[in-house]
Design a protein that fits this description.
The two termini are about 40 Å apart. By secondary structure, the protein is α+β, with helices and mostly antiparallel strands. Helix 2 runs antiparallel to helix 3 and helix 2 runs parallel beside helix 4. The protein folds into two domains: about 90 residues, Transcription Regulator spoIIAA; about 130 residues, Roll (Pdz3 Domain). The protein contains seven helices and 15 strands. The longest helix is centred in the first third of the chain and has 15 residues. Strands 6, 7, 8, 9, 10, 11 and 15 form a seven-stranded antiparallel beta sheet that branches. Strands 3-2-1-4 form a four-stranded mixed beta sheet. It has a two-stranded antiparallel sheet with strand order 5-12. Helices cover about 25% and strands about 30% of the residues.
């Protein structure tokens, strides 16, 4: 069977089919309150969703039945233990298009695709090798952009707190905040450490930009740049966080 580049994004409150970019519809799990008391049920629920909906009937050559047996033989006392087990379970599929989001990650994804946010205006990721927090790019005409933060800057401190060992979600919590409040980002650029005091603003995301270059005979060249999707256009599951 030919395996297509289509998978699932599994959230603790919803599952979305990324191949057709369904942002707010999809396959809904039972309420979070239920899974607080029954984390093993969450593991089984996710397994069943993959079992019903995964597009490759061989599960990428994985014995999916055995996976269920292995993970349901374990005891889970907290939702966090279930989240970890689910991620391990999905890793066996070796499919970058299938991933699990816990409630906090799902909330951040909704903010990322909402078309606006309150923060400083950067796209943040984590370097796969060094695990440092790295700026993918500043968002144009935002406080971070105006302050001079650039792509490939490493964020090594947030308000004086070291980011060593910090994941993107924890950094997002520290950097986002009320409109008008300030945050100091310490950037490592080459060998130089630079402090950037930045005031947070409400930032509207403009996913489309354009320009026009006129030419002779009343003709010209139009350029349209589609930077991302948001639910003001169509939904998208974003791997990076915007803050």
């Amino acid at each position: 069977m030919t395996k297509t580049t289509r998978g699932l994004v599994v959230g603790a409150t919803a599952v979305m089919l990324t191949a057709v970019a369904v942002a707010s519809a999809g396959i809904h799990l039972r309420g979070q309150a239920f899974f607080q008391d029954s984390p093993k049920e969450l593991v089984d629920e996710v397994w069943q969703i993959i079992d019903r909906n995964y597009v490759d009937g061989t599960f990428n050559q994985v014995d999916w039945i055995s996976v269920r047996t292995e993970y349901l033989d374990r005891n889970y006392t907290t939702p966090e233990e279930a989240y970890k087990a689910i991620r391990e379970m999905l890793e066996q599929l070796d499919d970058h298009y299938t991933r699990f989001m816990d409630p906090e990650e799902f909330k951040n994804m909704q903010i990322d695709t909402s078309g606006e946010l309150t923060g400083v205006g950067i796209q943040l990721s984590q370097d796969e090798e060094t695990k440092k927090l790295v700026v993918v790019s500043p968002i144009e005409d935002t406080p971070a952009f105006k302050a001079g933060i650039i792509a490939k800057d490493f964020i090594i401190k947030i308000d004086g707190q070291s980011t060593e060992g910090m994941d993107v979600n924890d950094a997002v919590k520290l950097i986002r905040g009320p409109v008008g409040s300030s945050v100091i980002l310490t950037i490592l650029r080459g060998e130089e450490e630079i402090d950037f005091p930045i005031k947070r603003e409400r930032i509207e995301i403009h996913p489309v930009s354009y320009s026009y270059q006129p030419e002779a005979n009343d003709r010209g060249i139009g350029y349209i740049r589609l930077k991302q999707f948001s639910n003001r256009r169509r939904g998208k599951c974003e791997m990076r966080s915007k803050i």
